[in-house]
Amino acid sequence: MVDLTQYLPILIFLVIALGLSGLFVFLPMGVSRLTGAHKPSKDKLAEYECGFPAFEDSRHQFDVRFYLVAILFIIFDLEAAFLFPWAVSLDLTGWAGWITMMVFLGELLIGFAYAWKKGALEWE
Amino acid sequence: MIHTIAFYIFAAMVIASGALVITARNPVHSVLWLILAFFNAAGLMVLVGAEFIAMLLVIVYVGAVAVLFLFVVMMLEIDFAEMRAGFVKYFPLGVLLALILVSEMILGIGAYSAGSMHLGTADGVGTPLMGESNIRSIGALLYGRYLFLFESAGLVLLVAMVGAIVLTHRERGTVRGHQNINKQVRRRPGDATVNTRPEVGKGIEL
Amino acid sequence: MTAFFESLGMNYEWAWFVATICGILLIALPLMLAVAMIIYVDRKIWAAMALRRGPNVVGPFGLLQSFADGLKVFLQETIIPSAANKGLFLIAPIITFTVALMAWAVMPFAEGAVLADINVGLLYILAISSLGVYGVVISGWASNSKYPFFSALRAAAQMISYEVSIGFILICVILWAGTNNLSDIVMAQKGAGLGIVNGFFFNILLFPMWVLFLISGMAETARAPFDLTEAESELVAGYQTEYSSMAFALFWLGEYANVLLMCALNTTLFFGGWLPPLDIGILYVVPGFIWWLLKTFFFFFVFSWVKATVPRFRYDQLMRLGWKIFLPMSLLFVVLVSGYLMLTRYG
Lengths: 124, 206, 347
Description:
By secondary structure, chain A is mainly alpha-helical. Chain A has helices at 8-35, 65-88, 90-118. Chain A has a domain at 62-124: Methane Monooxygenase Hydroxylase, Chain G, domain 1, CATH 1.20.58. The two termini of chain A are 50 Å apart. Chain C has one domain (76-344).
């Protein structure tokens, strides 16, 4: 059965880690105001573009290939998600489970081969 | 007691961040609230003892699906005026969908509390194997009893992959000559350079 | 540890709570110290490989260099660009650092010395490491500046590409160990190689997986030769370009904490964790934690060595390696390993 007392430390850890990193971000902001290091100016707060004023908005459309990578990643991630329970229950499912998974991997392999053939995995 | 407190914290956070998903003005903020909602849902899953599902929720939804969402909204040229117009246009449809969902929930809860259904109880179909972790129980059921459903899930994934490629992949007109790594690695200094010692005042023929 | 606090006269709940807090601090604080020291070690190793001296001014042998750097960034001004999305700009380093710390919650440092001994430990690590991408993407987007944005996109695509093959590699390990629990995976490696070598690397089917894991680990943590996210010749400093002060340092610390985590995972999954290298009685005299530390440090040396010697990959080479070589190979080995186990162990 699931031992919930093993998860409580993770929750406490999360709170402590968030607190620590929050402290690290906000404490120096206060300290720099006290020490006088905090002197913002217009040029200092401008975004970095090798010394030039920014040419155009920086958030513009990017290549659709990044999408394709993300979608392929979702699919292979799901495949891996199916593999995790399979990997620890092979002794319970035996050959039937193994063959099932091989058929499943075969299906995905067809898709992978298609992606490869279409050049979806190419970058230049 | 901690169990109860944790449940209420997680549940409240799920609902609050869910509400913020639809009220946030910036779509990127919406996606981030959605991620927070997924997280707290994973916390709820841990509380009911479904640790494997909780981890899957984080790996698949937070780690993969939400990354795609983030890509999509980051790529959108955000135009708030247009979004507001769209909101008014789709408002009746949204209300209709919400009503359908609410009525389905009422039906489902009503049917469940009426007790006419056996949702994974008593007859042993859905009960976990005794003394096994739930990841092993899921494995034993999924790759034994529900083997064909699992295979059809594989087919759905295949269709999704092919569909994604068909929709988003474009042939690039200017494909540069792809590098042949094998050829590059096999290239030796002798293939490209010669070592000569010309006499003084005389050049060499290349 | 709970028993110790109980002996001080607390009731069980309080003793457990105090023990857990102590455990967390015992992981988080030495980890931060280790990161500070490992940055120094890293610089010393590169220096030695380039026939330089490296940091040698602050403190004996320059040992205090990282602390001096830390103090410096701590006293600096936090610059928030006027075009930036302020809240998210500050949240991004918090996410990065929190995620880098959280993964250590399930790491077994020695027998029984693990904060949260959960059944799905390896999945937990995979889940947490898949969150690392958010710190990068949010910082790149919130900066509202071109270089960070490009870097964030690159980093996101790179991290998710290598996560795929890491997932399949982990499945090979889980198949062999038959469990998801990290402590049990370590115990399964006892005498795994010819009955004498403690570790999965001494196994013809898992050795290639270890090699892939080592390289994927470098790509996943955006460590050289895969540090395209901060390729200074193209992207200035990558997604951290607009950051300053501790917000910048948190990215730095988080990155090194992740590198250490990858080293620790190499140790835990393939080199027998806290077990001595050979399954011989006399070696068990040395405490497990020392073995764990030595092995992890060895892997850190390997990471450093690679960074000092291997030139940076190009982005197309990186994606090609991930999708066209690592992914098919790790899938093939899932089939091979499971097939072998079906024939010998479960069949």
